[in-house]
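Issue: copy button drops trailing tokens. Both records pasted manually instead:
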Amino acid sequence: MSREIRIQISDELYEQLQQAAAERRLPPEAYVGRVLNADLTRTGFREGARAFIAEHAEGFSGRFRGPARTSADAA
């Protein structure tokens, strides 16, 4: 299922959007969709990685004999 989102941006920003989309041979709406999807995917991956590190850091430390690091140290 897809949803529609309406936003307002300045004329200057829209001109930049059109240029970036044209360079990729995409309509501005498709370009924005791809950029938003990539950003949210990247954010989700990073959150998942941080959760994995937080959950398993101690186990890895014990297994590989290195000092345990927190998720903040790893990020």
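Record 2 (pasted manually too):
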Amino acid sequence: MTMKPIALVVAMSGLLVACGGSDSAPDDASSSSSSDSSASSESSSSSSASDQGDENALVIQEYDTGFCRLNGTVDSDNDGFTGIGFANTDNVPESAVTYRVSVPDAGHYALEVRFASIDTRPGDIQVNESVAGGFEFATTGGWTSWTTESQTVELSAGENDIALVATSTDGLPNVDSLTVVGNGPTAVDCGVNSDGEGLMLPQDGNPVHSRFNSSRTAWSQSKADIILSYQYDHGGWPKNQSYDSMGSGGNDLGTIDNGATVTEMIYLAQVYKDTGEAKYRDAVRKAMDYLLEAQYASGGWPQFYPLRGGYSDHVTFNDNAMTRVLTALHHASLDNTPFDTDLFTDSDRAAMQHAINRGVDYILQAQWEQDGELTVWCAQHGKDDYQPKPARAYELESLSGSESVEVIAFLMTQPQTPEVETAVKAGIAWFRSPDTYLADHTYNSSVEEKIVYSEGDRMWYRFYDLETNEGFFSDRDGGKYYDIMEISAERRNGYSWGGSYGEKIISYADRVGY
């Protein structure tokens, strides 16, 4: 699968919904950035046809059928919107929201836009890429004050693309919905956009970002020089360091296991943003070069680099290693905080996007299939054959109820092309299936039996049989057990065998309509 770099999509006025919510809280440009301006113009209507229940009024909300493209984000931080949120465009001229409808007959149709804004943000109406009118989008007095403005345009029989296009440097107001009023309009599934990209999902609630955000302040700023002293010459870091005293650098094997290298890079990017000291900038650049160099040509990342042999050479999802890398690349490629400084050039970001695209391609090819149905992923996969691989004796080839969560969540940061959307929905369906979770139970590591009754809770296993989806446990003898009390106390108490893993991704999927 080939995907265009997101950076290019923006330049080509393609679709981009950058990370929303806490992970991409747009710095200065957030609420005011794409907030809508809405004061009724002469053609405004305080009582729209849709409000009156007109059967010939079609209302299109964010991510409804007919919602095609957005240069910006879908946000939900200003009260009073309808649906799941509102369209917050980028603060640049020609940022747009595009819809697609079909009408049975050519003729005049009213377009009603519900919006809010603290200032006036005019926009053109383009129908099938030709300007067909405009909206004043005058101030509504605040981001939580919503109104509608209406204009009449002529639509052709059949499908029509309708775009609201900003004509000012502030972008459009916050657009809550478009209503098309006339003779039987219907919404059209946009599928893949003409530029080859799929829609972007709102990121508020996506669990893949929580670790990224916490990495920014993983240590106090007073430890920055200590952490810097442990960076190897090639740019990576060792794992499980306490960072209590100065290190000596060197050129040992770096790793992405247990969050190493990625966490340090994000943390030092924040330190550089706060201090402006060049030594931290240089360390972040060197770490990014290390991560890009460590990627296999097939798109995955090994656990250690340079390679050390054995199971650590497999592409490693275990402990969310690869998804941590991809999530960091995702934020860096978009200039999200703390990478919104002079850390990287456009060329750097293009290289990151290329690495992301290869990573996505690897993930799609590695997704395990049972009887023709896509499921989830293993903790390790072969770098070239994409097949599930074992690691330590008690880490057998299996489907992962833990790591698969963030694999799915990362895919949900990317353009939802048909291939990506199919993979995501299959993975979510696997987690939702009653065949994969243990109902009315929870995993309690503080008790000997670990798996205990808890009404209303659900527990997913760490490991599942590749063919039967049956959860199992294993021990240092390499055996497969289906009763946790049959494995040694040392393994039973020294490893996490279950948890409420699926709840996070199911909750987010519910929010975005997946």
